Amino acid sequence: MSPARQFVVLNDAPLGDGADEDLLKITQVAQGLAGLIVDSRESAPFTLSVDAAWGMGKSSLLHRLETTLAAEAAVSTVWFNAWTSGKASALEGLIKSVLLGFDRNVIRRVLRSMAKRAHLLGGVRGLVLLAGSFFGLGRVVDEVWQRMSLDAQARNQIKGVLRDAFGAWLAKSGTPGGRLLVVFVDDLDRCASERVVEVCEAIKLYLDVPGIVFVLACDQSALWRAVQESAGVGDPAAAVEYLEKIVQISYRIPAPSPEQALKLVDGYLDRSKTSGLFDKPLKDLIIERSGRNPRRIKRLINSFVLEYHLNRSWDAIGLENLVKVIMLQHFYPAFYRRLTNPRHLGLVTEFLAYKDFRTEVKQGGTVTPADWAALFGSKGLRPPQGGPDELHELEGQLPPEFPALAGDRDFVALLESFGRATESVLEQLQRRPLAVTQVPDDRPPVPLLVRPMASRRSGRVRLPVGEPARSALRGLRILWVDDQPPNNRGLADFLVSSGVQVDIAVGWAEAWEALDRRRPDALLSDFRRGTDDDAGIDDLGSFRREGYDGPVLFFSGKVPGLALQHRIRELRADGPTNDENEVVRWLEELVANRPG
């Protein structure tokens, strides 16, 4: 056996830590945010949120920002990880972290001040003596908090104690403009809703004192959902108002540009020593199908590295083919699972034949029965004669994902690229499927975080400006499938402000995952995906065959011909419409006609 290739697993360290250079150019952003914080010190207290989805580099930016601020003589920093801070309450952990951000003399002064408040802390005087002993200040702060936690009145007066602490700390400043304590709160969006609200309350009720700035790393949609669930704020507009009292300024990390994403992928491939196995089309596929998400990109590369170390037989089949199989597993999991089933040995051949027949039909070509006899015969169907319903009849006998995949150029190119190795790859997978498993994202689809409709206007049809939220829609859950979500922002904003939970899917795979996880009350969809004008119809056909029987409305400006109208009715859908008011009326009728 030849020596194993030395591929290397990538860790989850934030970008810019350790061996990572600044692959996404976050240093410039960190410098800009640091300048904003320092220049605004007289406005403290205030809170800055760094907003992004899971895996998009929030922690990386916080670490770089902390490093930048550490170079400022008058700035001190404290790091608090809300997710890994232990089982103690977030309120306790955050306040203790802030106290320990002061120097020893300030803490001693605070303890002496607290000791004088005998009605609050009783015998805390003795604890002051511990400050200079071998127990250390950390132990003193723990003991003080323990005594506070036993007395509700004491807890309610923590803010006064903290004001004293900050006053003493700020008074020691010899720097023009004064001192500043910046508290970084990381991984807040990973926490349970109750813990999220605890941190918010600690910031607003106890730590809203001069000289302090909070920097929160969080997906604001997760914060919004947590506030609705645990803060007694059920109304979406009220939840937004609640957050505006906590967070005064937000920076949304943009998705990497195509050039940045390519540099990121190249950097990861170089570090993992796998760069020779990924050509430009595969890199482009990773970039687009991962949503340009750094953590997802690392997961895919690590899956390849681990699988190779566990199964060296891929050397004989070709490591580039293992890369492609990993791509299938991550980006097309339903199709990959079928590949590992011995009953589906001819799956690739069947799919490619179906794809060619579908193309022939849609382009209006002449269908020769003999050319498709094997494909139709394998499904117990008569060879096609060119009738309009034969494609739909065939699709009814095929796996439900086939129509959507046939319109996915990336998928078709990936499958065709196996070429002569197709049979060897299938035999390998059915003999020994991949040992590594695709770890699903740890977050379900989240509702859009929006402000209530006030002066915003729709992109297509103007909705009533300033109209009160429709209470009739509150609690309704819809899935909206569209590969260009920003086009629908106005209507989505209005629906969310009316109490509707709007989950977004940009393609078949995301939509099917959402439908499989939790059934929505209704589905909205467009027709077009990329260059495929019928993808929305094909998707709905797949959903219907797999058991989704809920109401569907096509939201599109496309004028349907007779054939399209027939398919819409055949699939028990409504529309299409591009009138946003009509969408709202359709949803209201849906609610009104619910049983009971």
Report on the structure:
The chain is α/β, with parallel strands linked by helices and 596 residues long. The protein folds into three domains: 26-252, P-loop containing nucleotide triphosphate hydrolases (Rossmann fold), CATH 3.40.50; 341-442, no CATH class; 471-592, Rossmann fold, CATH 3.40.50. It is 51% helix and 9% strand. It has 29 helices and ten strands. It has helices at 26-39, 58-70, 90-99, 104-116, 118-121, 125-130, 136-149, 152-156, 158-171, 193-206, 220-230, 236-246, 258-272, 280-289, 294-310, 314-317, 319-331, 333-339, 347-362, 369-377, 390-395, 402-406, 409-416, 422-431, 489-497, 508-517, 535-545, 562-570, 580-592, and strands at residues 46-51, 75-81, 180-186, 212-218, 249-252, 477-481, 501-505, 522-525, 552-555, 574-577. The protein has a five-stranded parallel beta sheet, with helices on both faces. A five-stranded parallel beta sheet has the order 7-6-8-9-10, with helices on both faces. β3, α10 (193-206) and β4 (212-218) form a beta-alpha-beta unit. It is globular, with a radius of gyration of 29 Å. The relative contact order is 0.08. Mean pLDDT is 77; it is low at 118-135 and 440-470.
Average pLDDT for all residues: 77
- Percent helix, as a range, is 40-55%
Strand order of the largest sheet: 2-3-4-1-5
How large a portion of the residues is in β-strands, by DSSP E? Answer: 5-15%
Straight-line N-to-C gap: 69 Å
What global shape is seen?
globular
Gyration radius over CA: 29 Å
CATH class assignment of the largest domain: Alpha Beta
CATH architecture group name of the largest domain: 3-Layer(aba) Sandwich
Largest sheet: 5 strands, parallel
List unreliable stretches of 5+ residues: 118-135, 440-470
Return the CATH topology of the largest domain: Rossmann fold
> What is the overall number of helices?
29
The counted number of beta strands is: 10
- Write the CATH homologous superfamily of the largest domain: P-loop containing nucleotide triphosphate hydrolases
User: Helix/strand-derived class?
Assistant: alpha/beta
Integer count of domains: 3
